[in-house]
Amino acid sequence: MNIPSALKYTKEHEWLRVEGDVAFVGITDFAQGELGDIVFLEIETLGETLDKEEVFGTVEAVKTVSDLFMPVSGEVLEINELLEEHPELVNTDPYGKGWLIKITVKDASEIGELLSAEQYASTLEA
Predict the structure, then answer these.
(1) Quick check: is 89 in a domain?
(2) Which domain, by its residues, includes 30?
(3) d(CA 18, CA 110)
(4) pLDDT (tens digit, 9 = 90+) per residue, 8-36?
(5) What phi and psi values does residue 44 have, to the nearest 5 degrees?
(6) Which of 20, 32, 39, 126 is 20 to 30 A from 62 in CA distance terms?
(7) How far apart are CA 69 and CA 66, in angstroms?
(8) How far apart are CA 21 and CA 110, in angstroms?
(9) 85 burial via Cβ count (<10 Å: 0-12, 13-18, 19+)
(10) Number of structural domains found in the chain
């Protein structure tokens, strides 16, 4: 299982990659594997400011639909348009082309509350 050390993680299996004033959000390799083949993403929160752990959309797989949670508070700046026609990118490249949203981070101190790669890996072993 791939758990990049440069990212931060939530217990709900989202990841966060900070790049300057913005951050990218996606779901982890573990999450996409548990969901199975992803067929559709519904993210209608573009331009909205959401709180940490608030739902920003849903991911639909062949077997189930799951909520997507904000890892930190912030405004949704962009939705990955590639996923409209290619939702399978979340399965094949969850940390690269399969990112879900780009956000501004409202409170940088919340980033420190997220899990490191090692901490996230230990939650999967429990």
Answers:
(1) yes
(2) 8-109
(3) 12
(4) 999 999 999 999 889 999 999 999 999 99
(5) -120, 30
(6) 126
(7) 10
(8) 14
(9) exposed
(10) 1
